[in-house]
Design brief:
Layout (H helix, E strand, L loop, with lengths): L20 H4 L19 H16 L3 H11 L4 H16 L1 H8 L12 H15 L5 H15 L2 H15 L3 H11 L3 H8 L4 H13 L7 H8 L5 E5 L6 H7 L6 E3 L6 E4 L8 H4 L3 E3 L2 H12 L8 E4 L6 H13 L2 E6 L2 H10 L8 E6 L5 H4 L4 E7 L14 H4 L3 H20 E11 L8 H9 L4 E4 L1 H6 L16 E2 L2 H4 L5 E7 L2
Parallel strand pairs: 5-6, 5-8, 6-7, 8-9
Antiparallel strand pairs: 1-3, 1-4, 2-3, 9-12, 10-12, 11-12
Helix pairs in contact: 2-3, 2-4, 2-6, 4-6, 5-6, 6-7, 6-8, 7-8, 9-10, 10-11, 15-16, 20-21
Organism: Xylanimonas oleitrophica
Family: Belongs to the class I-like SAM-binding methyltransferase superfamily. RsmB/NOP family.
Keywords: Methyltransferase, RNA-binding, S-adenosyl-L-methionine, Transferase
């Protein structure tokens, strides 16, 4: 075989598009529909979802950055926009599950399919198994999408494969996948649509937090459930009551589950809420709010006048801290290494009264401790991490991250935490936060840093978190000094919090 010849190349037509197996064999069987009746394309919502998947795969783009401007540009609104969003995000979240199904319906390894064709098959499978779309519509519209984007030959294959998918209910597919898996963890990874290494790490994190490792399936399912949009009413700038009172009647706002600052939005555009539009409120997960509030509530010795957000971009936690600082007469410095993210921080802080934000500093957080030793009373280290705690928000991240990322990130995390401990004064408090429960990014980073220095004590992070929830609310946490939130338990991102106080 020629070294440049790939399996399947003999099925390509003159335009380079992949032909079906039947066409390549000379099988001239046709659908019963007349050519004039066959769908040549599909609707704008499905086309938009397809284009998002191609951008995510081909350009390493993030769906949450690609989809909204695409919908605006194509004037896709209302129910069509909601359909496109669920189709794109749901397909990305459940890609692993659907690939396990498709592998049982396609006559060749999935890696031999052209990526655009595989994305079309995934989109069709999600409509059949994951959405309330009639099967005939899911099949016919996806065949039209295939004909438009990958050619008539592959469209016939899409028709045949999706009809196989549709013949078996989802629960039966999942039962087959579990039965064929070599072990229970692999079964959970496939049916729960997470890479095996991520599934293993999450199960270990559950056990490390004193939880039952058998919760792994519930955790994976929570990762596959679209999160509600949560708003934060930034203290010192606006109250939750004022946010609700100032919102239009058409906007549905309900109290958050845990915090007096949190509000849950009922599906409308957040910018329809005036307090969000002018920066007094913002979009922020309740777990993200909680860890910032806990830092402000943690006990320290001595003055409480100067705070630092060491890794401030894009600015949500910085804005919340700035509101709290305004209430207390403190000042905030927000540091961010990337100039474009520093501009996002400045925008997030636009409603903060003059004099509260000392400056938005653009620089490497690893150098702040040396440049300003002992200069701050409270320091937040919201460290860059794998983001395994926010997979429900960025579903494509689970397929991009690899175990090799940990070595780079954990080294950075140790350096940033060390810099924060140098930057805080004796008696001051550091909050080490990650949006990941992975033990290598949480407990092991803290233990490694503390092993190399003396005069740092751990504070009870759980007690600090419980002190900021709505009075009378029971926040279930482990019995460790650090604290871990979970999507399947708390309905938040899986935020980790360790609180450290520097001894005098």
């Amino acid at each position: 075989m020629n070294a440049d010849h790939r399996p399947g190349d003999d099925r390509r037509d003159a335009r380079g598009r992949q032909r079906s197996a039947a066409r390549s064999r000379g099988d001239r069987t046709r659908t019963a529909q007349a050519p004039s009746q066959r769908r040549r394309g599909t609707d704008p919502a499905r086309t938009a979802a397809y284009d998002v998947l191609r951008e995510v795969d081909g350009s390493d783009a993030y769906a949450n950055l690609v989809l909204p401007p695409l919908l605006r540009e194509r004037r896709i609104t209302g129910r069509d926009a909601a359909f496109a969003t669920e189709l794109a995000y749901g397909t990305l979240r459940l890609r692993g599950r659907y690939d396990a199904v498709l592998a049982r319906c396609v006559d060749r390894p999935l890696e031999r399919l052209d990526p655009p064709l595989l994305d079309v098959l995934r989109l069709g499978t999600h409509q059949i198994l994951g959405m309330r779309v009639p099967q005939h519509a899911a099949v016919s519209e996806t065949v039209g999408l295939a004909r438009q984007h990958v050619g008539a030959g592959p469209a016939q294959m899409v028709n045949a494969v999706l009809r196989k998918v549709a013949r078996t209910p989802l629960d039966d597919w999942l039962q087959q996948i579990r039965a064929d898996a070599p072990d229970p963890l692999t079964a959970s990874a496939l049916t729960g649509s997470h890479p095996l290494w991520v599934t293993r790490a999450l199960r270990e994190a559950l056990a490390g937090d004193g939880r039952d490792p058998a919760e792994i399936d519930a955790l994976l399912e929570a990762d596959n459930t679209a999160p509600r949009v949560t708003l934060v009413a930034r203290p010192g700038l606006v109250s939750a009551h004022e946010v609700r009172a100032g919102a239009p009647d058409s906007v549905d706002l309900a109290p958050g589950r845990w915090l007096p600052t949190a509000l849950v939005l009922g599906g409308q555009d957040p910018l329809a809420v005036p307090a969000v539009a002018d920066g007094r409120a913002g979009v922020q997960d309740e777990g993200s709010q909680a860890v910032a509030l806990a830092l402000a509530a943690a006990p320290l010795d001595g003055p409480d006048e100067r705070w630092l957000d060491l890794c401030a971009g894009p600015g949500g936690k910085a804005a919340l801290l700035a509101g709290l600082a305004a209430q207390r007469g403190a000042r905030l410095v927000a540091n961010e290494v990337a100039p474009h993210r520093a501009r996002l921080v400045e925008r997030a802080l636009r409603a903060v009264p003059d004099g509260v934000v000392e400056r938005v500093r653009t620089g490497d957080g690893r150098e702040v401790g040396e440049q300003e030793p002992g200069a701050y009373d409270r320091v937040l280290v919201d460290a860059p991490c794998t983001g395994l705690g926010a997979l429900r928000r960025r579903p494509e991240s689970r397929w991009r991250r690899t175990p090799a990322d940990l070595a780079v990130l954990t080294g950075l995390q140790r350096d940033l935490l060390g810099s924060a401990l140098d930057a805080v004064r004796p008696g001051g408090v550091v909050a080490y936060v990650t949006c990941s429960p992975h033990l290598a990014e949480t407990r092991l980073v803290v233990e490694d840093v503390l092993r190399r220095r003396e005069g740092v004590e751990r504070l009870d992070a759980g007690a600090a978190l419980r002190s900021v929830v709505v009075p009378g609310t029971d926040l279930p946490l482990g019995d460790r000094q650090d604290a871990q939130l979970w999507p399947h338990v708390h309905g938040t991102d899986a935020m980790h919090l360790t609180l450290l106080r520097k001894a005098h």
